[in-house]
Amino acid sequence: MRRGVLIFIIVNLLIITFLVRNVFTLLSLLVEDASADAIHRADIPSPVSSLLETRPQIIPKIIHQTYINESIPAHWVEPQQSCINLHPDYEYMLWTNEKSREFIATEYPWFLETYDGYKYPIQRADSIRYFVLAYYGGTYIDLDDGCQRRLDPLLSYPAWVRRTKPTGISNDAMGAIPQHPFFLRVVESLQSYDKHWFLPYITVMYSTGPLFLSVVWKEYMREGNFDRVRILMPDEYNRFSWSFFTHHTGNSWHGADAQLIFWVCYTTIH
Ligand SMILES: *[C@@H]1O[C@H](CO)[C@@H](O)[C@H](O)[C@H]1NC(C)=O
Protein backbone atom coordinates (compact mmCIF):
# COMPACT_ATOMS: atom_id res chain seq x y z
CA MET A 1 0.00 0.00 0.00
CA ARG A 2 1.31 3.42 -0.85
CA ARG A 3 2.10 5.78 2.01
CA GLY A 4 -0.38 8.38 0.76
CA VAL A 5 -3.20 5.87 0.84
CA LEU A 6 -2.28 4.78 4.33
CA ILE A 7 -2.30 8.36 5.61
CA PHE A 8 -5.60 8.92 3.85
CA ILE A 9 -7.13 5.92 5.59
CA ILE A 10 -5.74 6.90 9.00
CA VAL A 11 -7.03 10.47 8.70
CA ASN A 12 -10.44 9.17 7.70
CA LEU A 13 -10.52 6.74 10.60
CA LEU A 14 -9.69 9.57 12.98
CA ILE A 15 -12.46 11.72 11.56
CA ILE A 16 -14.95 8.86 11.75
CA THR A 17 -13.96 8.11 15.36
CA PHE A 18 -14.45 11.77 16.23
CA LEU A 19 -17.85 11.88 14.54
CA VAL A 20 -19.08 8.62 16.00
CA ARG A 21 -18.14 9.76 19.48
CA ASN A 22 -20.00 13.05 19.05
CA VAL A 23 -23.02 11.55 17.40
CA PHE A 24 -23.15 8.85 20.05
CA THR A 25 -23.33 11.49 22.78
CA LEU A 26 -26.01 13.39 20.89
CA LEU A 27 -28.08 10.26 20.31
CA SER A 28 -27.69 9.10 23.88
CA LEU A 29 -29.10 12.46 24.97
CA LEU A 30 -32.31 11.54 23.18
CA VAL A 31 -32.90 8.57 25.46
CA GLU A 32 -31.71 10.27 28.65
CA ASP A 33 -34.82 10.99 30.71
CA ALA A 34 -32.83 12.24 33.74
CA SER A 35 -35.28 10.54 36.09
CA ALA A 36 -32.44 9.09 38.17
CA ASP A 37 -31.37 12.62 39.10
CA ALA A 38 -34.73 14.36 39.18
CA ILE A 39 -35.43 16.56 42.16
CA HIS A 40 -38.29 14.73 43.86
CA ARG A 41 -41.56 16.58 43.92
CA ALA A 42 -42.08 15.39 47.48
CA ASP A 43 -38.84 17.10 48.51
CA ILE A 44 -40.19 20.51 47.61
CA PRO A 45 -42.52 21.98 50.24
CA SER A 46 -45.55 23.94 49.12
CA PRO A 47 -44.83 27.65 48.75
CA VAL A 48 -47.32 28.40 51.54
CA SER A 49 -46.10 25.63 53.82
CA SER A 50 -45.37 26.78 57.33
CA LEU A 51 -42.91 23.95 57.76
CA LEU A 52 -39.45 25.26 58.35
CA GLU A 53 -36.85 24.30 55.81
CA THR A 54 -34.93 21.64 57.63
CA ARG A 55 -32.37 20.75 55.00
CA PRO A 56 -29.10 22.66 55.03
CA GLN A 57 -28.92 25.27 52.30
CA ILE A 58 -25.54 24.92 50.68
CA ILE A 59 -25.88 27.02 47.52
CA PRO A 60 -25.01 30.65 48.38
CA LYS A 61 -27.93 33.10 48.40
CA ILE A 62 -26.94 34.96 45.27
CA ILE A 63 -29.07 35.60 42.17
CA HIS A 64 -27.12 36.17 38.95
CA GLN A 65 -28.61 37.73 35.82
CA THR A 66 -27.06 39.08 32.63
CA TYR A 67 -27.82 42.01 30.37
CA ILE A 68 -25.92 44.37 28.06
CA ASN A 69 -26.02 47.20 30.61
CA GLU A 70 -28.07 48.40 33.57
CA SER A 71 -31.01 49.60 31.44
CA ILE A 72 -33.24 46.53 31.55
CA PRO A 73 -35.90 46.67 28.78
CA ALA A 74 -39.44 47.36 30.07
CA HIS A 75 -40.79 43.88 29.30
CA TRP A 76 -38.17 42.27 31.55
CA VAL A 77 -38.47 44.63 34.49
CA GLU A 78 -41.46 42.78 35.93
CA PRO A 79 -39.90 39.30 35.92
CA GLN A 80 -36.62 40.77 37.18
CA GLN A 81 -38.40 42.54 40.05
CA SER A 82 -40.42 39.45 40.94
CA CYS A 83 -37.16 37.61 41.68
CA ILE A 84 -35.61 40.52 43.56
CA ASN A 85 -38.75 41.15 45.65
CA LEU A 86 -39.10 37.54 46.74
CA HIS A 87 -35.46 37.37 47.83
CA PRO A 88 -34.58 40.50 49.80
CA ASP A 89 -32.01 38.50 51.75
CA TYR A 90 -30.21 37.31 48.60
CA GLU A 91 -27.38 39.19 46.97
CA TYR A 92 -28.33 40.32 43.47
CA MET A 93 -25.66 40.45 40.77
CA LEU A 94 -26.39 41.85 37.32
CA TRP A 95 -23.63 40.91 34.90
CA THR A 96 -23.44 43.68 32.33
CA ASN A 97 -21.13 43.36 29.32
CA GLU A 98 -18.58 45.58 31.01
CA LYS A 99 -18.64 43.77 34.36
CA SER A 100 -18.54 40.38 32.65
CA ARG A 101 -15.47 41.16 30.61
CA GLU A 102 -13.71 42.63 33.61
CA PHE A 103 -14.50 39.50 35.63
CA ILE A 104 -13.14 37.17 32.94
CA ALA A 105 -10.03 39.33 32.47
CA THR A 106 -9.32 39.27 36.20
CA GLU A 107 -10.30 35.76 37.24
CA TYR A 108 -10.03 33.66 34.08
CA PRO A 109 -7.47 35.43 31.85
CA TRP A 110 -6.83 32.18 29.93
CA PHE A 111 -10.38 32.43 28.61
CA LEU A 112 -10.34 36.09 27.61
CA GLU A 113 -9.22 35.50 24.04
CA THR A 114 -12.02 32.99 23.42
CA TYR A 115 -14.51 35.25 25.19
CA ASP A 116 -13.59 38.29 23.11
CA GLY A 117 -13.42 36.19 19.97
CA TYR A 118 -16.99 34.92 20.11
CA LYS A 119 -18.81 36.05 17.01
CA TYR A 120 -22.25 36.33 18.64
CA PRO A 121 -22.92 38.36 21.82
CA ILE A 122 -25.18 35.58 23.11
CA GLN A 123 -22.11 33.31 23.32
CA ARG A 124 -20.61 35.73 25.83
CA ALA A 125 -23.94 35.91 27.71
CA ASP A 126 -24.04 32.09 27.80
CA SER A 127 -20.47 31.56 28.89
CA ILE A 128 -20.36 34.22 31.61
CA ARG A 129 -23.18 32.49 33.50
CA TYR A 130 -21.14 29.27 33.79
CA PHE A 131 -18.13 31.18 35.06
CA VAL A 132 -19.99 33.13 37.73
CA LEU A 133 -21.67 29.94 38.97
CA ALA A 134 -18.32 28.16 39.07
CA TYR A 135 -16.75 31.08 40.91
CA TYR A 136 -19.39 32.46 43.28
CA GLY A 137 -22.02 29.74 43.20
CA GLY A 138 -25.63 30.87 43.49
CA THR A 139 -28.60 30.74 41.15
CA TYR A 140 -28.56 32.01 37.59
CA ILE A 141 -31.94 33.09 36.16
CA ASP A 142 -32.64 34.34 32.63
CA LEU A 143 -34.20 37.80 32.57
CA ASP A 144 -37.39 36.48 30.97
CA ASP A 145 -37.97 34.03 33.83
CA GLY A 146 -39.94 35.50 36.70
CA CYS A 147 -39.96 34.00 40.20
CA GLN A 148 -43.17 32.61 41.71
CA ARG A 149 -41.77 31.40 45.00
CA ARG A 150 -38.53 31.52 46.93
CA LEU A 151 -35.62 29.49 45.65
CA ASP A 152 -34.69 28.20 49.12
CA PRO A 153 -35.65 24.53 48.59
CA LEU A 154 -33.30 24.39 45.59
CA LEU A 155 -30.37 25.60 47.68
CA SER A 156 -30.07 22.15 49.29
CA TYR A 157 -28.62 20.53 46.17
CA PRO A 158 -24.94 20.98 45.29
CA ALA A 159 -25.93 21.66 41.68
CA TRP A 160 -29.13 21.67 39.64
CA VAL A 161 -30.15 22.42 36.08
CA ARG A 162 -33.48 22.22 34.38
CA ARG A 163 -34.76 19.53 32.07
CA THR A 164 -36.11 20.47 28.65
CA LYS A 165 -38.44 18.53 26.40
CA PRO A 166 -37.92 16.55 24.26
CA THR A 167 -34.34 16.20 25.34
CA GLY A 168 -31.42 17.68 27.19
CA ILE A 169 -31.09 20.44 29.73
CA SER A 170 -31.25 24.21 29.45
CA ASN A 171 -29.05 26.99 30.75
CA ASP A 172 -31.79 29.51 31.54
CA ALA A 173 -32.10 28.66 35.23
CA MET A 174 -29.50 26.73 37.20
CA GLY A 175 -27.82 26.73 40.55
CA ALA A 176 -24.63 25.45 42.15
CA ILE A 177 -22.22 25.69 45.02
CA PRO A 178 -18.93 27.42 44.14
CA GLN A 179 -16.42 25.19 42.31
CA HIS A 180 -18.90 22.41 41.67
CA PRO A 181 -17.08 19.82 39.50
CA PHE A 182 -19.75 19.93 36.82
CA PHE A 183 -19.50 23.67 36.29
CA LEU A 184 -15.71 23.50 36.49
CA ARG A 185 -15.85 20.99 33.69
CA VAL A 186 -18.29 23.19 31.76
CA VAL A 187 -16.01 26.22 31.86
CA GLU A 188 -13.00 24.10 31.00
CA SER A 189 -14.84 22.62 27.98
CA LEU A 190 -15.82 25.94 26.41
CA GLN A 191 -12.62 26.42 24.41
CA SER A 192 -12.77 23.03 22.73
CA TYR A 193 -16.40 23.58 21.73
CA ASP A 194 -15.66 26.99 20.22
CA LYS A 195 -16.27 25.85 16.67
CA HIS A 196 -18.16 27.29 13.76
CA TRP A 197 -20.97 25.28 12.27
CA PHE A 198 -22.63 26.41 9.11
CA LEU A 199 -25.67 28.00 10.76
CA PRO A 200 -25.39 30.71 13.44
CA TYR A 201 -28.07 29.00 15.50
CA ILE A 202 -26.20 25.72 15.62
CA THR A 203 -22.92 27.47 16.29
CA VAL A 204 -24.42 29.21 19.32
CA MET A 205 -26.32 26.18 20.61
CA TYR A 206 -23.35 23.85 20.32
CA SER A 207 -20.53 26.19 21.37
CA THR A 208 -22.01 27.77 24.52
CA GLY A 209 -25.79 27.16 24.60
CA PRO A 210 -28.10 24.40 25.84
CA LEU A 211 -26.82 21.79 23.40
CA PHE A 212 -23.25 22.37 24.57
CA LEU A 213 -24.36 22.17 28.20
CA SER A 214 -26.37 19.00 27.52
CA VAL A 215 -23.47 17.24 25.83
CA VAL A 216 -21.03 18.14 28.60
CA TRP A 217 -23.63 16.99 31.15
CA LYS A 218 -24.06 13.68 29.38
CA GLU A 219 -20.30 13.08 29.21
CA TYR A 220 -19.97 14.07 32.85
CA MET A 221 -22.61 11.50 33.82
CA ARG A 222 -21.11 8.80 31.64
CA GLU A 223 -17.90 9.04 33.60
CA GLY A 224 -19.86 8.04 36.69
CA ASN A 225 -19.16 11.18 38.67
CA PHE A 226 -20.09 11.03 42.29
CA ASP A 227 -21.23 14.66 42.45
CA ARG A 228 -24.38 14.26 40.36
CA VAL A 229 -26.23 17.23 38.99
CA ARG A 230 -29.86 17.25 40.11
CA ILE A 231 -32.57 17.98 37.58
CA LEU A 232 -35.53 20.33 37.98
CA MET A 233 -38.32 18.78 35.93
CA PRO A 234 -40.77 20.78 33.77
CA ASP A 235 -43.67 20.66 36.26
CA GLU A 236 -41.55 22.06 39.05
CA TYR A 237 -39.96 24.56 36.68
CA ASN A 238 -42.91 26.63 35.47
CA ARG A 239 -46.11 24.72 34.79
CA PHE A 240 -48.09 25.30 37.95
CA SER A 241 -48.81 27.93 40.54
CA TRP A 242 -46.48 26.07 42.91
CA SER A 243 -43.66 25.88 40.35
CA PHE A 244 -40.58 28.03 40.87
CA PHE A 245 -40.63 30.19 37.77
CA THR A 246 -42.97 31.88 35.31
CA HIS A 247 -42.09 32.44 31.72
CA HIS A 248 -42.39 35.92 30.22
CA THR A 249 -42.14 36.41 26.52
CA GLY A 250 -39.59 38.86 25.24
CA ASN A 251 -37.43 37.13 22.73
CA SER A 252 -34.95 35.41 24.91
CA TRP A 253 -32.39 33.69 22.76
CA HIS A 254 -32.91 30.13 23.85
CA GLY A 255 -36.68 30.25 24.09
CA ALA A 256 -39.30 27.81 22.93
CA ASP A 257 -37.75 27.44 19.51
CA ALA A 258 -34.58 26.14 21.12
CA GLN A 259 -36.27 22.78 21.22
CA LEU A 260 -36.74 22.82 17.49
CA ILE A 261 -33.08 23.62 17.11
CA PHE A 262 -32.16 20.57 19.14
CA TRP A 263 -33.81 18.48 16.49
CA VAL A 264 -32.25 20.42 13.64
CA CYS A 265 -28.87 19.77 15.25
CA TYR A 266 -29.42 16.06 15.44
CA THR A 267 -30.37 15.79 11.83
CA THR A 268 -27.69 18.08 10.43
CA ILE A 269 -24.77 16.84 12.52
CA HIS A 270 -25.85 13.32 11.79
C1 LIG B 1 -28.00 49.86 27.05
O1 LIG B 1 -28.05 49.02 25.91
C2 LIG B 1 -29.14 49.29 25.04
C3 LIG B 1 -29.17 48.22 23.96
O2 LIG B 1 -27.95 48.17 23.26
C4 LIG B 1 -29.00 50.71 24.49
O3 LIG B 1 -30.09 50.98 23.63
C5 LIG B 1 -28.96 51.67 25.65
O4 LIG B 1 -28.74 52.97 25.17
C6 LIG B 1 -27.87 51.31 26.64
N1 LIG B 1 -27.98 52.16 27.81
C7 LIG B 1 -26.95 52.77 28.37
C8 LIG B 1 -27.22 53.55 29.60
O5 LIG B 1 -25.83 52.70 27.90
From TrEMBL:
UniProt record similarity statement: Belongs to the glycosyltransferase 32 family.
Name this polypeptide is given: MIPC synthase subunit
Residues annotated as transmembrane: 6-31
Main location: membrane
Gene3D superfamilies: 3.90.550.20
Entries under InterPro entries matching the protein: Glycosyltransferase_domain (IPR051706), GlycoTrfase_DXD_sugar-bd_CS (IPR007577), Nucleotide-diphossugar_trans (IPR029044)
Gene Ontology cellular component terms for the protein in this record: membrane
An individual GO BP term: mannosyl-inositol phosphorylceramide biosynthetic process
GO molecular function terms attached to this record: mannosyltransferase activity
PANTHER family (alphabetical): MANNOSYL PHOSPHORYLINOSITOL CERAMIDE SYNTHASE, MANNOSYL PHOSPHORYLINOSITOL CERAMIDE SYNTHASE CSH1-RELATED
Natural source organism: Talaromyces proteolyticus
Topology term for the membrane: Multi-pass membrane protein
